[in-house]
Amino acid sequence: MPDEKFNLKTTGLKLSELEPCNFCDGPLRSVFRVIEVKHAAVNARNANQTLAMASGFGFGLALAEVFSTGPGAEVLENAEAVTRLFCCQDCLCGDVNIAVACERVNERRAKKNQPKEIEEHAQEA
Ligand SMILES: [Zn+2]
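YS: structure for the whole thing
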C-alpha cells in the first residue's frame, strides 16, 4: 500500500515470497533490503563508436552519446535472469559476497523447481 503522507511507492511481497536473509540465514525482522542482481555487459561496438566520437571529433561524452547508435552497456532484464536477494540489517552493514549469495539462492531455487523424478535419480547417483 503506497504511503500517501510521504508519497512512497511500494511493491507488495507475499509472506510466502519472503526468505531468511540470503547472507546469514537469519530472520529479516521488520526492516530489510531487497537486492535485485542483474547481469550486464559492455557493448564493445557501441562503446568504441561513442568513445571514438568523443575523443576523435572532440565531442564531449554527452554529445557523443546523442549521436551514438546504441548504449555502451546492456543490462539483462529477463525475469528469470534476475536474482532477488533478501538482506537483513546486520548483513547490510557487514562484509557480504553477493556472488556467493546469488549462487546459493539460484541452486536452492533450481532444486525446489526440479521435478520429483529427476530429484530421486540425482539422489541415487
Ligand atoms: Zn543477514
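YS: worth flagging: The first strand starts at residue 33 and ends at 37.
IM: good catch. Also Residues 21, 23-24, 26, 88, 90-91 surround zinc ion (CB under 6 Å).
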